[in-house]
Amino acid sequence: MRVGVIGGGAVGLLAGAYLGRTHDVHMVVRNEEQKDILCREGIWCDAFSAAVFVEAHLYPRLPRDMDVWLVSVKQYDLEEVLSLPLPENGKYLFLQNGMSHLDQLQSLYLDTFAAVVEHGALKVSFNEVAHTGKGRIKAAPFTGSLPDMEELAESLHQEDFPFLVHADAVGMLSEKLVVNAVINPLTALFEQKNRAVKDNPYIRSLGYRLCEEACRTLSLDVQHQWNRVLAIAEQTGGNQSSMWKDLQEGRRTEIDAISGFILDRAREDLPVHQFIVEAVHAMEYEKGVIVDE
Ligand SMILES: NC(=O)C1=CN([C@@H]2O[C@H](COP(=O)(O)OP(=O)(O)OC[C@H]3O[C@@H](n4cnc5c(N)ncnc54)[C@H](OP(=O)(O)O)[C@@H]3O)[C@@H](O)[C@H]2O)C=CC1
Ligand SMILES: CC(C)(CO)C(=O)C(=O)O
Description:
It is an enzyme of class 1 (oxidoreductase). By secondary structure, this protein is of the alpha/beta class. It has twelve helices and eleven strands.
């Protein structure tokens, strides 16, 4: 298949490397130096002993006739990508954490699919990626159809890079949203690895309150979701969450697409979420990532 990947960050490079072994992968990046090195040297992933060769293009030049597009930019960069006249022939799989993209996808004329990435990936350089946690990509139809999703997943699935079909995009993303709304901001603010959400009694107590607020808003069972949060905090215990990593590297976080989305949907005050969103923005401000509005 011809696979387009928009965004050569951690997830884009990881997907490009795994899929590039058997598919014709085209990376779309916004930095000329990155485009050149990808074309010249391919992608180096620590899971393989050799580079995986791909083609690369400079945004906004999109290659034609892709069977599928994997969109792997951060939530806050989606609006710009979606403002392009995106080719209509092809399926679009969105790999973002958070849920604020769904409203934007609803109004598109494209066949869209949503995914939850359970892998851990770290961009090491323009063309090097570390696969820090082996997982799966769960994908569900959004404006696209379930049969198309099944066909797509079957084509993309590899034993060491599994794709799993889920029927309900909103349900699937909501459950991941709760995990990210609890683990990401707390680990970022307290500069702790994910395990702290389970092991530190004070962080755990804050985590439970975040989980409760999120579940009330999303109509999910609190105890079930809390058990999932604790299990993921344990499974990924040694990881730095993406939000902590973003702050550490002076990048903007996805707090608005995660906790901000929950606040937007809430029918009541959510004091812990309100605090947490402002606290993360305060950290972004200190890092010079956002300026006062
Ligand atoms: N990393 C992980 O382990 C996981 C990530 N996710 C989710 O996946 C999504 C992507 O995350 P991740 O890969 O880590 O993020 P990164 O910041 O590493 O990568 C995003 C990439 O998108 C690029 N980009 C932004 N705008 C454009 C554009 N207009 N054209 C081309 N490229 C563009 C950025 O370019 P530039 O480098 O020039 O800024 C950057 O390389 C996020 O929503 C994240 O929450 C989910 C689970 C795990
Ligand atoms: C599940 C978790 C918390 C793993 O680190 C994650 O998705 C993230 O860091 O963004």
